[in-house]
Design a protein that fits this description.
alpha+beta, two-stranded antiparallel ribbon
Amino acid sequence: MCGLGDDRFEGEAADLEAGIWVRGVDYLSGWRDAREATAELGDALSLVGVESAGVRLRAGSGPDGSGVVRLELSAASAREVALLARVAVARLGRAG
C-alpha cells in the first residue's frame, strides 16, 4: 500500500503555512480526507507502474476546509500518466 511516509511516493504532512486560517472552518477533516485520497492515488499510480521518483503527492485543505490533493509530476511521469489515461479511455470506450 502506498501511503504517506512509506517512501514509494513523496508525501508531506499538512501544509500549515499555505494560507489564512478561518475560525470555525474544519480544515483537519478536509486534510484527512485528502490524505486518504492521496494514498489511494499513490496506490493506483503504483499499480499501473508509474515511476514513483517522478511523482509528488501532497494532502491539503482548501479555503473552505475541503480536502485538496496536489499532484506534481516530472515531465516523463506526466507523459506516462497521459498515455495511461488515453489507454483507459480507449478500453472503456469513453470519448472526451
